[in-house]
Amino acid sequence: MDASALPLFCQHLLSQLASPPHEVRRLFHGRGRRWAGLEQLTADWLDGQVQISLFKEQDADFLAALTAALHDLVQTDIWQRSGAVSLLVQHRDRVGSPMEVIWGELQTWQQVTENGLKFQLDLGQKQNNGLFLDMRYGRRWVMDQAKGSKVLNLFAYTCGFSVAAIAGGAAHVVNLDMAKAALGRGRDNHRLNGHDLNQVSFLGHDIFKTWGKLKKHGPYDLIIIDPPSFQKGSFALTTDYAKILRRLPDMLAADGKVLACVNSPAVSPQFLIDGMADEAPELKFIERLDNPPEFEDLDHDSALKAMVFAR
Fold first, then answer.
1. Domain boundary among 58, 87, 122
2. Domain S-adenosylmethionine-dependent methyltransferase spans what residues (predicted)?
3. Which residues neighbour 307 within 8 Å (Cβ) at sequence distance 6 or greater?
């Protein structure tokens, strides 16, 4: 990256903080490659905590320039009036993804609001905090679609889609993820929103060893697939996604829908369209959901793909 671009980064942050978001929101998305010299830098508003994330290790000169620029930023009137309580830098490319406190005090457990729903974030402990902000429109779509539905949420993580579905009136949601600790956070997210946990199931299993149990809970009116691009020993996007797609017809209700997602910049939307045509041809592509405007990408096909299919 280029230290000479940092004044532009700070100027953009200040313009965003002049009217701070009312909910959790990305403030700066260098990963969209629209800001030359800042491609590995993002900034998020976490309901008062501002988190800067560095996705690749930078040289000492850039890091010193970034720290100096941020120290200047917190002295501005706009920052002081913004309601921010901390300024953090997460070094995602370092072992343990350590969090550096530039100003204020780190609040490890941060509650945020999105689409009127509450979520608990875990800051400074892991690479990911518990909520992927680029999927905001996807969760809103699920909320709008869910009334009276039985929903299957694959790769559920902390159950953001499940929270949205129950808030939208879903009859029942089945969450599947190998990470039982993440599912435990999902329970907490449901409790934060006053949801009846009798309407929610949590299965901490390997998806490829659980088809029988999943089918027994079905058929589903809505199936959500939002996998990692790669998870060592359990999932590789380009080889394993097809194994999921071919199972969909047996688990989906007659008029059911599928929200299939990919967040790898190396994969285009056509990957899912072709994969579905090959593995489950009775499911037709309906639409690609918009991404939030703050996640604009130089190449639209490199950004998050959230694709809707139906019989």
1. 122
2. 25-309
3. 259, 260, 261, 262, 269, 272, 273, 285, 287, 288, 289
